[in-house]
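Entry:
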Amino acid sequence: MTMKLVRFGERRTGLVVELPTGPHVIDIVASVGTLLPEDPVSSGVLNGILREGGSWAPLIEHWTYARAGLKRLAEVALRRPDHPDLIMRPFDGILAAPSTGNSESIAALEITELNNDAASNRERPPIRDRVADERVVALDAYRNRV
């Protein structure tokens, strides 16, 4: 499973989802109401970490709860893109958060989880760094679980 987070506007965090009409970005904090009342823990974790434009490090620390909420938001977007609590924009309609030139200005983060079967059957490919437009750096790293 892969999830892509983006920063946009005033340090807001969005979740990229691919809909039949093209890629869209879910405003996570504005959409946490979609998770209630079924999942108040994930809603609280996402809101608590991201509401003030917070760092993504705590999101990764609390990945178990954050993942559940993000996955549910993506599922709702796919099933009911018109859900009244889901705040979503076309991907090409957002402005990336401006870069300040430091590590806290990461514009996108892609998280890929490998299941145990895939990890054990895969050779370790080389790490590749790419720079595009002198602004965006992507790092593809893979690791095998022992």
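The chain has one domain: 2-114.
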